[in-house]
Design brief:
Layout: H1 35-40, E1 65-66, E2 72-73, H2 95-99, H3 102-117, H4 123-159, H5 165-171, H6 180-184, E3 195-197, E4 212-216, E5 222-226, E6 232-236, E7 253-256, E8 262-271, E9 277-285, E10 299-301, E11 311-316, E12 323-327, E13 330-334, H7 336-339, E14 355-356, E15 365-367, H8 372-379, E16 385-387, E17 393-400, E18 406-411, H9 417-422, E19 432-437, E20 447-454, H10 455-460, H11 467-472, E21 475-480, E22 491-498, E23 503-510, E24 515-522, E25 538-549, H12 550-554, E26 565-566, E27 585-590, E28 596-601, E29 610-611, E30 618-627, E31 632-638, E32 645-650, H13 655-663, E33 672-673, E34 689-694, E35 700-707, E36 712-717, E37 725-728, H14 731-737, E38 744-752, E39 762-770, E40 780-788, H15 805-813, E41 816-821, H16 830-834, H17 842-856, E42 861-871, H18 873-883, E43 891-895, H19 906-913, H20 920-926, H21 932-935, E44 938-944, H22 953-965, E45 970-975, H23 987-1002, E46 1008-1009
Parallel strand pairs: 21-25, 40-41, 40-42, 42-43, 43-44, 44-45
Antiparallel strand pairs: 1-2, 3-4, 4-5, 5-6, 7-8, 8-9, 9-10, 11-12, 12-13, 13-14, 15-17, 16-17, 17-20, 18-19, 20-21, 22-23, 23-24, 24-25, 26-27, 27-28, 28-29, 30-31, 31-32, 32-33, 34-35, 35-36, 36-37, 38-39, 39-41, 40-46
Length: 1037
């Protein structure tokens, strides 16, 4: 490509047709010199001298001009001006002039010029000057030619058609690169709205009307709307919600009672563990729609507020407005009739008015809320309360942690040390300690008891009996007819669910999750007895209706999931044709091919599943709704495995329909996509992510599109889905996001041949996050950073809209990011994930290493700059990959990793590894114990000192192993008092900046192109001072 005329003053002079050289197609031929023109030229002012950055001349030097054959020719000035500006020699005239007295003409011209300017030239002096300049040209011309060639090649490389840079600086020139602070401050968080589907209030014109939903406003009011009639009204005015002293109540979360008469509000919200909190609760009476608000105060505390709060949770019943709550680890029920009675003392609320179900609550005994390990590893919730559909009974679990060892860790700075010192608070110099009952593999688990309290029975007993007699006479303890031996491995409860007004299922496994049993309890057949206050609790024995040995079946484990859904209509459903369907329930189970599908069990005592769906895809996340009125089952499917779409299938209406499916005479119905999802008619669902929630009557639903494009939320009518109500379209966010550069994302399935573990060839999902307009030609070499998690049943590859740390590295630092879901992860069938049983970290390491090895061979990848990072299980897998010393990864970054499975909690570890005494070799191999690989890679380790989940002890152990093995090429950072999420005192942002700095120090900025000139980075900014794919060749520090 020819250089433009604005950069080359060296070539700005006129050229003869003998001096055009390689640029003759650019520069015009010179005008013929005449006496008239020669006389005029000396009167012109000399042009302004512009230094030429490409010229090697100093002031006063002559300007060489290349000849066609590569020789140099002299040039003389027509104007008599200094030759530093470029000149034209008389020899650049025609050959005829030189043969027909050109010398006299030249002399005449020179004489005339000399007379006008006072200059004197002789022919001899002129010839001598020409000789000198010819010699200079012979020396300078080769340098000029090389410089010109270099510049042309550089321009071709920068703007060539294969590099993509010409397109980047064209279509993308006006777009910004995201900064890490913008990633952290919410710039790329789309707007979401939270609506709660509610039953129509009893005072409404049509209390059976469907489609009602509630929304909270910024001022603390609650608005009730209806999708079908487009009505909207203020259900609760924030100004009416007041504390006992009359001040406006600042509340955090709310629940509405099923009958719409009360709202439960919480304040002073305090986090305990990942899902659990403590709060002070208030009950607000909702004014009737056809009458003015009551003159008495409408808001009362449930109990006297305390600091810190002592109430863990509160839960309305599915009918009316009974309220169950857990206070100081004991369970209480406040019946609706007592709530309707104004409390005697407004400041104390209904203290002393509730039915106390348990009386043994302590720091180690709790009812209605889970222990730490059950909250984290089984229920992912702060509640173990389950109301029956009719609100007659309440099932709950009691936990006794008295035999569970306690893990203590310090809180070094519970408040700002400086602030405490300034305030004169004593004792801040010593850290606080937090203790958590944390069972580790092989140590005692919490002892569990499943109970049912019958509120209906309690309220039916004579009031002449004492409250304690009524309580003990209404309480049942549930036990399986074939319980697990507590002296052997004990038992773990993973699910409690009502499938009828008096029918309950309890799912249990042994301690290592090899064997699963489901017990059925029929409270209608219970022989309720009147008990004295000191009598033992009544026991109801449940029949084991299903039992599976998963270890024998496929070498896997029993999942800790809550997927059972009743076929019986809820007590509030009117007109549901409950007798049209075979009685029973639905569950999610692996089909014969190992993929999880919807199974029907009818009757509820049946042990044989009848599958309603099938195929090499899985139902993910549970069953969304069973619509008995329309005869439909809605569910979310991972179809393909990295996507989430909502489907429906018809519900079998008779035993004959079920038998046809069981025998194979009828095929599984083809699932139907829920309207609203962006899939063209007749086409299969593509890469996208949706989630759904249905209204109380099932006639409306909220559909959330989570990506990969800009998310949105809409409300649809089931019978008329063509005109949805838009909750959020994120139009403003989309406009803002459009001004930024965004990474290019590709998905692929990679076949790993001879993968071992008896599985044969396997396919793994791989996702690549690429820099914008990435050069794939191989001229630009990019560093690759693998992001891994890899835990059993997990999935890191999704199609949700994300602009996170990985996208920042790709768009701003020009890194290629690769995510992989190796064997052991979810939604690819039981065979794919069960192979890791008993050897966590082994198979995943093989899969990730093989993918990384193939990625390093790609033309655009810099094989010397391939790294890996991960958090939690991903930190463990990162450490195992560096430990493997496979010469693929030269860098690893592990955040809060498990380094030895003896140190993690029992329920998670034993589910996948078994008991330590039965798998000692597996525990040894799965720990991070070989140190040689860490000597050959750069390694960064970070952990929060207040991590209650993966204890800091894990990183301390690894650091000690580094010390003993004399491993020195690593970085470590502890984040004071941060838990597993590393957020205390803005630690999360500091962590990402620290990781970024480590990457830049070891790998530098992104793509490096051969032949690209060096460009200087701005040392004060992580953002590169050059275009994509450009960086310097600085050595690793």
């Amino acid at each position: 490509m020819a250089p433009s005329s604005d950069y080359s003053p060296l070539l700005a002079a006129e050229h003869s047709d003998h001096a055009a050289g390689p640029h003759e197609h650019v520069f015009p031929p010179p005008e013929r010199a005449t006496k008239r023109s020669q006389r005029r030229l000396p009167r012109q002012r000399p042009p302004l001298w512009i230094p030429d950055p490409f010229s090697f001349r100093s002031v006063g030097s002559t300007s060489p001009t290349p000849d066609r054959d590569g020789a140099s020719t002299d040039s003389d000035s027509d104007s008599g001006e200094d030759t530093v500006y470029g000149s034209e020699s008389e020899e650049t005239g025609s050959e005829e002039k030189r043969q027909a007295g050109s010398a006299p003409v030249k002399n005449e011209s020179a004489s005339t010029t000399d007379e006008e300017d006072g200059w004197e030239f002789s022919l001899a002096a002129l010839q001598k000057d020409r000789t000198k300049r010819r010699r200079r040209l012979l020396v300078l011309f080769p340098a000029f030619l090389v410089l010109t060639l270099f510049f042309v090649l550089a321009l071709a490389n920068l703007f060539g058609p294969s590099s993509g840079h010409n397109r980047f600086y064209g279509a993308y020139a006006s777009k910004r690169r995201m900064s890490l602070d913008e990633v952290l401050n919410g710039t790329f968080y789309p707007e979401t709205k939270r609506v709660e589907w509610v039953a129509a209030p009893a005072d409404s014109a049509d209390s059976a009307q469907d489609g009602c939903y509630a929304e909270r406003t910024p001022d603390g009011s609650i608005i009730l709307s209806n999708l079908f009639d487009n009505s909207s009204r203020t259900l609760i005015d924030g100004a009416d919600v007041t504390a006992p002293d009359g001040s406006r109540l600042r509340w955090s979360r709310y629940q509405l009672s099923a009958d719409g008469q009360y709202a439960l509000l919480d304040t002073d919200w305090t986090k305990v563990w990942r899902h659990s909190t403590l709060a002070n609760f208030y009950l607000h009476r909702i004014a009737s729609g056809d009458s003015p608000a009551s003159s008495r105060p409408q808001t009362h505390p449930l109990l006297k507020p305390s600091s810190p709060p002592l109430t863990s949770l509160a839960l309305f019943s599915p009918t009316r407005h009974h309220l169950a709550y857990v206070h100081a680890n004991d369970l209480y029920i406040l019946p609706a009739s007592r709530i309707d009675t104004e409390p005697r003392d407004r400041e104390k609320g209904w203290e002393g008015e509730a039915i106390r179900i348990t009386k043994d609550g302590s720091q180690t005994v709790m009812s209605g809320r889970p222990s730490w390990v059950y909250e984290e590893e089984v229920f992912s919730s702060d509640s173990t309360l389950w109301w029956s559909p009719s609100s007659s009974h309440l099932a709950f679990i009691s936990f006794d942690e008295s035999e569970v060892p306690q893990y203590d860790y310090p809180i070094y700075n519970p408040s700002s040390s400086e602030a405490a010192a300034d305030a004169g608070i004593d004792g801040w110099e010593y850290p606080n300690e937090v203790g958590v009952r944390y069972p580790k593999p092989g140590y005692p688990n919490p002892r569990i008891t499943v109970r049912v309290f019958s509120l209906a029975r309690y309220l039916s007993l004579s009031t002449t009996l004492s409250a304690e007699e009524r309580r003990s006479s209404s309480l049942l303890t549930l036990r399986l007819s074939r319980p697990f031996d507590p002296e052997d491995e004990g038992e773990v409860v993973t699910e409690v669910v009502w499938i009828g007004p008096d029918e309950l299922l309890v799912r249990m496994t042994d301690r290592s999750a090899r064997v699963e049993r489901i017990g059925r309890f029929d409270l209608a057949s219970a022989e309720w007895q009147r008990k004295s206050a000191d009598a033992e609790e009544q026991v109801l024995e449940g029949e084991v209706v299903r039992e599976t040995d998963w270890w024998e079946k496929d070498g896997g484990w029993a999942e800790a999931a809550q997927n059972i859904v009743s076929i019986s209509p809820p007590a509030t459903a009117e007109g549901a044709r409950s007798h049209d369907y075979p009685p029973g329930y639905l569950d999610l189970l692996p089909h014969a091919n190992g993929f999880v599908h919807v199974a029907y069990f009818s009757p509820s005592t049946s042990s044989a599943p009848i599958f309603l769906t099938g195929g090499e895809w899985e139902v993910a996340g549970g069953i969304d709704r069973v619509d008995l009125q329309r005869g439909l089952i809605y569910f979310t499917a991972a179809r393909p495995s990295v996507s989430r779409h909502i489907y429906s299938i018809p519900l079998p209406r008779s035993f004959a329909d079920l038998e046809a499916l069981r025998s194979g005479k009828a095929k599984h119905p083809e699932p139907t996509l829920l309207p609203g999802q962006l899939v063209k008619k007749g086409e299969k669902a593509g890469l996208a992510s949706y989630k759904v929630s249905f209204s109380k009557g099932g006639g409306a639903y909220q559909l959330d599109y989570d990506g990969p494009s800009i998310p949105w939320q809409k409300l649809y009518k089931v019978e008329d889905p063509d005109a949805p109500l838009i909750l959020t379209d994120n139009a403003a966010f989309a406009e803002r996001a459009a001004s930024y550069l965004h990474a290019d994302i590709t998905h692929s399935r990679m076949v790993l041949e001879d993968a071992g573990a008896g599985t044969g060839d396997v396919e793994v999902n791989v996702m690549e996050i690429r820099p914008p307009m990435m050069d794939e030609s191989g001229r630009t070499k990019y560093p690759v950073l693998f992001q891994v998690y890899g835990g059993p049943n997990s999935q890191i590859i999704t199609n949700k809209f994300q602009r996170d740390f990985q996208h920042y590295l790709a768009t701003t630092l020009d890194y290629v990011i690769v995510r992989i879901d190796p064997r052991g992860t979810g939604y690819n069938g039981r065979k794919f994930r069960s192979t890791v049983r008993g050897r966590l970290g082994e198979i995943e390491t093989k899969d990730v290493t093989e993918v990384a090895r193939r990625w390093a061979e790609k033309a655009y990848v810099d094989g010397k700059r391939v790294g890996v990072w991960g958090w939690s299980y991903g930190g463990f897998l990162t450490s195992k990959l560096i430990e493997a010393n496979a010469s693929v990864f030269s860098l690893g970054m592990a955040v809060a990793p498990v380094t030895d499975w003896h140190l993690y909690d029992s329920l998670y570890t034993e589910r996948y590894m078994g008991l330590p005494e039965r798998n000692a070799g597996g525990y040894r191999n799965s720990s991070v114990h070989e140190m040689d690989g860490f000597r050959h890679a750069d390694f960064a380790l970070a952990h929060g000192s207040g991590d209650d989940n993966v204890h800091f002890q894990n990183s301390a152990l690894l650091l000690d192993r580094f010390t003993m093995a004399k491993v020195r090429n690593f970085r470590f950072r502890m984040f004071t008092d941060s838990d597993h999420s590393i957020q205390t005192r803005s630690a999360y942002g500091e962590l990402l900046h620290w990781l970024e700095g480590f990457l830049l120090e070891r790998f530098g900025h992104g793509g490096r192109t051969k032949g690209r000139w060096k460009m200087r980075k701005d040392p004060n900014s992580a953002r590169p001072a050059f275009g994509p794919g450009e960086t310097d060749f600085g050595e690793k520090q």
